[in-house]
Amino acid sequence: MTKFYFEQGPIRPPSEAYSLLLRVTRNCPWNRCEFCHTYKKEKFSLRSVEEIKKDIDIVQEIVSEIKSLSWRYGFGGEITVPLVNLILQDPQHFSDGFRSVALWLHEGGKNVFLQDGDNLTLKTISLIEILRYLKETFPSIERITTYARAKTVSKKRVEELQELYRAGLSRIHIGLETGYDPLLQYIQKGVTAQEHIEAGGRVKESGISLSEYVVLGLGGRGMWHEHALNTAKVLNQINPDFIRIRTLKVLKTMPLYQKIEKKEFILLSDDEIVEEERLLINHLEGITSTFTSDHILNLLEEVEGKLPEAKEKMLKCIDRYLALSKKEKDNFRLGRRAGLYRSVEDLYKPELRSQVESALLQIETARPGGFEKALSDLMESFI
Ligand code: SF4
Question: Which atom from ligand 1 is nearest to the alpha carbon of 35?
Answer without folding.
Answer: 7
